[in-house]
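Fill in residues.
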């Protein structure tokens, strides 16, 4: 432990009337005080206690021991010197001070005397405890109409340290989705700073951090807690009408027949948006109603909105129209231009005062066809809209006024004829392929092209139209399975195939796909020397490591398969050596007495 963890060495002596006889007790002050910092390790000296015995010899030698107050057995004392030291780690949070009773006994064998001193040891706090929140996480709710400045929650965190190390301050480290709260740094009181609106945000999440106030800011400890705040909906929005203020209704409508769906919207949640109609209508009493409709929600308290609705009662058309046919059928090409006439629909109504209106009452297509309204004298026409749909139509047409009591229906069937207007399209199957050389004939890939047309216009066949060097590749006409014969990378390293997909339309349309086939190397070639035999002469006094000759070999494979290593394989190893990477042959011996002709007849290729 460093010196700053230890209090100053303290020694006390007491000189009073002390005799040299063995009847004299050791003399020391009545109490001592030491300080030690929290966290000091085992074996650290706290202080020294000294008692003086004025006797001489063995009678004056003093022995020390702790006889009381050693809470948690933290301290011990050297019997012969009085040095007080730690035998366990000191923790301020366990005890902030200790009151030891230390006994000093002289060494008299006949009549030993002793004294007891009180030793106070104060533990100096170290900031080793972070603040702790009582609850984590925290969840609570507040009404959306809570006034600004209202205290909504008290955050509380405790720190077991003392002094500034145990003083806690609070701050908001995160707010989402908006900053509408603030917190008192000292008390942890959370208050509302902005008005809440349930219709904008139903909940908030904040992160509150509690930090102690250690003097050294780098040693300050902190803890955070996540808090979710639920906003409670209050009935603070009145319904808003979305329906028109004028309608027409037939005089013969039965009681309780729905003549208008009154729509009002309420931004509040749950039951606050339920609406009711205040009054009903009766044509027999008056032909024009001016109704004050009230829409009220079910909130507490309820809120309401009002709308003036004008209801005009119309006479009844009591003769239904009739169609000449029960079913109308026609065919139309999907490529028909806008405005192309498709068919005529006829309907008659014997009520001359009432015009015949034809309109669609049921539709089963993705795109609308155009129709022409008729007064009954001319046939009703249907023409192609901005784009013909791609489905068969089974529309219904109704004759009569839009809210007629007795309408009549007829079916209109329009079959769309497909046109070959889409070429086959390759999807994700067009990409670069990697095929090992020397592979047996096999399927290496399947190309897929689709055609958005139907029937023969969507039937696709496949062919290779370009790049098939040496006819190494073939493709199945119908399945698109691409096969290859054995490939030789040393002849062709890469193929660029062009594959076409044709439909069976008239005229046929085609799509193209570019497929790159990269041939992967295999180690299927041996290295070859540039010459079948090499010869050289060398002087007998040639220096060691003299280059005699250089041999070269080539390997047509690729990458590591083409890397060559050279070695000597005969009895000349005692005289010569070869560079395994370059192929240089070097003299090995330091002296040669006779001129030798060496034939290096065995080089090895090592992969």
């Amino acid at each position: 432990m460093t010196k700053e963890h230890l209090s100053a060495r303290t020694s006390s002596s007491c000189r009073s009337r002390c005799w040299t006889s063995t009847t004299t007790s050791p003399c020391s002050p009545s109490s001592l005080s030491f300080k030690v910092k929290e966290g000091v390790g085992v074996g650290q000296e706290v202080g020294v206690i000294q008692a003086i015995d004025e006797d001489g010899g063995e009678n004056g030698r003093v022995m020390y021991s702790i006889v009381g107050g050693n809470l948690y057995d933290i301290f011990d004392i050297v019997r012969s010197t009085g040095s007080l030291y730690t035998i366990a780690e000191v923790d301020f949070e366990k005890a902030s001070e200790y009151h030891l009773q230390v006994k000093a006994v002289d060494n008299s064998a006949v009549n030993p005397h002793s004294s007891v001193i009180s030793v106070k040891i104060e533990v100096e706090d170290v900031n080793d405890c972070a603040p702790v929140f009582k609850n984590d996480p925290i969840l609570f709710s507040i009404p959306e109409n809570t006034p600004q400045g209202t205290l909504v929650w008290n955050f509380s965190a405790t720190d077991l340290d003392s002094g500034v190390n145990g003083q806690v301050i609070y701050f908001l480290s995160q707010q989402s989705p908006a900053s509408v709260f603030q917190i008192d740094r000292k008390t942890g009181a959370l208050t509302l700073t902005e008005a809440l609106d349930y219709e904008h945000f139903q909940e908030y999440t904040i992160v509150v951090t509690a930090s102690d106030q250690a003097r050294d800011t780098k040693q300050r400890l902190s803890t955070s807690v996540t808090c979710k705040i639920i906003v409670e909906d209050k009935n603070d929005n009145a319904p808003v009408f979305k329906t028109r203020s004028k309608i027409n209704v037939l005089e013969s409508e039965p009681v309780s027949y729905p003549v208008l769906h009154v729509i009002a919207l309420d931004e509040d949640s749950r039951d606050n948006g339920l609406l009711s109609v205040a009054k009903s209508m009766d044509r027999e009493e008056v032909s024009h109603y001016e109704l004050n409709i009230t829409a009220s929600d079910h909130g507490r308290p309820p809120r309401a909105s009002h709308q003036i609705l004008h209801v005009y009662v119309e006479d009844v058309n009591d003769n239904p129209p009739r169609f000449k046919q029960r079913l109308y059928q026609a065919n139309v090409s999907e490529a028909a231009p806008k405005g192309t006439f498709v068919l005529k629909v006829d309907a008659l109504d014997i009520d001359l005062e009432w015009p015949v209106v034809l309109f669609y009452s049921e539709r089963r297509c993705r795109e609308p066809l155009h129709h022409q309204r008729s007064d009954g004298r001319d046939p009703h026409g249907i023409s192609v809209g901005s784009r013909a749909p791609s489905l068969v139509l089974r529309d219904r047409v109704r004759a009569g006024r839009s809210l007629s009591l007795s309408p009549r229906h007829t079916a209109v069937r329009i079959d769309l004829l497909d046109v070959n207007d889409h070429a086959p399209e390759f999807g994700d199957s067009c990409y670069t392929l990697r095929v090992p050389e020397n592979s047996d004939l096999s399927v290496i890939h399947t190309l897929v092209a689709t055609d958005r047309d139907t029937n023969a216009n969507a039937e696709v066949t496949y062919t290779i139209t370009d790049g098939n060097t040496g006819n190494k590749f073939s493709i199945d006409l119908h399945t698109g399975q691409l096969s290859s014969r054995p490939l030789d990378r040393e002849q062709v390293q890469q193929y660029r195939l062009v594959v076409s997909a044709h439909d069976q339309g008239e005229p046929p349309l085609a799509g193209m796909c570019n497929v790159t086939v990269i041939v992967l190397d295999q180690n299927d070639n041996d290295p070859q020397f540039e010459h079948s035999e090499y010869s050289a002469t060398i002087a007998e006094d040639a220096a060691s490591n003299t280059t005699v000759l250089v041999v070269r070999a080539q390997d047509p494979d690729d990458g590591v398969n083409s890397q060559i290593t050279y070695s000597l394989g005969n009895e000349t190893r005692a005289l010569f050596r070869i560079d395994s990477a370059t192929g240089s042959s070097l003299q090995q011996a330091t002296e040669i007495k006779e001129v030798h002709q060496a034939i290096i007849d065995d080089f090895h290729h090592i992969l």
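The chain is about 0% helix and 40% strand.
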